Amino acid sequence: MITIALVDDHVIVRSGFAQLLSLEPDMKVINQFSSAQEARNGLAKQAVDVCIIDISMPNESGLTLLEDVANSAGCIMLSVHDSAIVINKALTTGAKGYLSKRCSPDELVQAVRKVAKGESYLASDIEMQLETTDPYQQSIACLTKRERQISEMLAAGLDVKAVAVELGLSHKTVHVHRANAMDKLNVSNNVELVKYFPLEIL
Questions:
Q1: What is the enclosing helix (H) or strand (E) of 30?
Q2: What is the pLDDT of residues 98-131, one digit of tens each?
Q3: What domains, with CATH codes, occur in the chain?
Q4: What b/e readout covers 162-174, taking b as 16+ CB neighbours within 10 angstroms?
Q5: Predicted TM-score (pTM) of this structure
Q6: H or E element: which one contains 28?
Q7: Cβ of 6: how many Cβ atoms within 10 Å?
Q8: CA angle centred on 125, ends 122 and 131, rounded to 5°
Q9: Residue 48: HSE in the Cβ half-sphere, 13 Å Cα cutoff
């Protein structure tokens, strides 16, 4: 039996998914949560095989919950936001599946079964979105919000001291974020950051 948890702030969405999945003889929804924090607390007490998480929730994104539960359950992200940057962020954070809220019932069931077996599942429209994405944008999606912010400022010509003052951070903290970002982007200096953050888009 595949045990499932649903995380979505809309009760009607959770109820609909629960009813749909309960029709499958090998699936059982054992938990429903309305927020990331509620899910974090609940999943710490009772593990599940598959966790279906809405990305856009008030107070806290489903992506932050994903960081905490991806190692203990197969996570499928569900969202109306299917931009390649958001999709890549979810996948690099540990999601095993990604579905648009426009997906069909069959796709949802298929995704749950695949992820429960340790496989990955991307809806066909999601795969097409990724295939047409600039590889630079895919790399940027791996950065944290702070790493991206600091990288953009450095690419614009500010030095570490100026960035630290502007953001109210210590020099050491800025250096750590800078080093992490450069490692993820495989660049070695501020000049090379410009190819990821062209000045005209800053």
A1: strand 27-33
A2: 998 888 899 999 999 999 999 999 877 676 666 5
A3: 2-131 (3.40.50.2300), 143-201 (1.10.10.10)
A4: ebbeeeebeeebb
A5: 0.65
A6: strand 27-33
A7: 25
A8: 85
A9: 28
